[in-house]
Design a protein that fits this description.
The chain is an alpha/beta fold. Among the domains are: 87 residues, no CATH class; 206 residues, Leucine-rich repeat, LRR (right-handed beta-alpha superhelix). It has 19 helices and 22 strands. The two termini are 15 Å apart.
Length: 512
Amino acid sequence: MYICIRFRYSRPVSSLFLIRNMERRIKRSSDDTVYDHNNKRESKFFVTTTNNEIFYRIFEYLEYNDIYHGLFYLNNRFQNLLINLNIPFQIYLSTISKSHVDLYNKNVFQPNKHRINILRLSNPFTIELIFSPPCLLFIVKHLIHLPKLHTLIPSPIDYILNSTIIFTQVFCLKKLKYCKLTYRVKDNKNVLPIDFDQYEQSSIEYLIINSPFQYESFQKLFIYLSKLRHSSINYLFGSNHSQIDFYPIHLKDLNYIFFDLHSIHFHQFEELIKNFFHHIKVLRISTFNDSSYSHTKQWKELISSSMPNLHIFDMNNSYTSAMHRFLYLYLSGQFRSKRKDHTFHWQFDHDIDYYLKKHDFKSVKHINICSKRAVTNSVIYFSNVIELTIKNYGKMYYGSMLTALQQILPLKQLKKLIIDCNDIPVQQVINLICLTPNLHFLKWNFQSIVQTKLKSIEQSENFRSLSNTNKIQNFQILHCCSFDEIQIFINVFPQLDYLQTGEFRKQIVQII
C-alpha cells in the first residue's frame, strides 16, 4: 500500500476558473447591460460604450475554449464579438459532452473553419462524439475543410493497417508546416508500405512519425516533401537482407534527421544517406545490438563523401566497447553533440587506452549508470550533468564507487538522483548524498535497514552533517518502510515538501 504526504501545496488559478467565477456573479441578459449581484447589492455595468479593442486585448490572454464557454451566452454583444473575431483560432478540446460538441460545432467550427490553424482533440471520448470509427481516418479526411491549418498533432486513437490514406490526406493541406503523426498498429511486421500517387508538393517542413514506418517507403515519402527541414521517425524498420534501389531526391532544406533503426543494416542506412540526406547538418540515430554500425572506416568514408555539412552527430548503439571507442573518441573530436541523456556502461565507456585524452560531453544533462563493475580513470567526462540514475551498484576491487563517479561527473551540481537498485548499502547512499549539496529530488529503490543498524546510522558523522546541509524537497521510496525508517528519513531531510512511500497498513495511523 502506498501513501503520499505533501507538506505544502499551492495551485494556480486557470483563466477558465476566473471566467466561470465571473459568470456566477453576473446575471445573463440579452442586452448590453450586465448585473453584478454582490452582497445583495445590485449594480449596473454598461458595456455599450466599451471599445471592442479592449475586449480583443483581453482575449489575447485567454484560450478560445475559455472565452467561448465563459462569454458566448452572456449577452448579444459578446456573441457578436466572438462570431466576428478576426484572429487565427487555436482550439484545444479535452472533456466535452455531446450537447456541447453540437453547439461548439455550430457556433465555432462551422463559422470559423477558414481561420482555424490549430485544432487539438486530446480526449479519445471527445473524438468519438464527433467522428465514427476508424476515427483517425475520418479526421484526416475532414481536415481539407481547414485551409489555414498549419500544425497537426493527432494522438493515437485506433489501429491502422494501411497508413497510405493518412499521408495522402495530410499532404493535401496547403498551409501545413508542422506534422506529428502517431497511429497505432497491432503488428509491426504487417504494416503495409505507403503507396500513393500525388502530384502536388506538400508544404510540410517538420515531419515527425511516432509510429512504425517501413524503410521501403522512403522514396514515396520524400518525393513530395521538397520543403522538408526536419524529419524524425521513432520506429524505422526493415529487413537486414532487403535491397531497395532508391533514386536520388534533392532535399536542399533538410538539415535534421533522427531515426530509431530496427532490422536495418548499415549498408541500407548508407543508401538513405547517399540518396536523400546530402545536406543534413544534424544526424541522430539509435540502433540496438547491431555490429554493422561499429566500424570506423565506413563512417569516415560516408561522412566525408555524402554528408559534407554534418557538424552534429549522435548515435546510441548497445553493441560492444568497440562502438563506444569509435563514437566517443573518434567522432567526438570532429562533431559537436546535442545529446541530453547518456547510458554509461562502466566496462565499455571506461575500458579504453590510457593515453587517450579525456573528452567532455557538455550537452549531456542526465547520466544513467549501468553494469556491475565500476572502474576508475575514465576518459569520458560529463561536466554539465544535473541528473543521475544508478541502475546497478558498481562494485569495485580498488577504491570506491564514489571515487569513480567523481571522475566522470561533478557531483556537487546534481539536482536529481534516482537509485534504481536495491543492493547499494545505505551508508554508501548517505555518503553520496553528502557529496551532492544541491540535490532537490531523490528516488530510491530502498528495501529496509536492519533494526540493529538504525542507531549506528543515525549516530554516524555523515548522517548528522547531512541533516543540516541537504536541500532535498521531494523524496520517493519505491518499497514499504517501517515507521522507524520513515522517521529517520524525515529527520535527515528536514526540508521535505513531498514524501511518497509504500507502507504497511497497520502503521498508517502511527505515521499520521
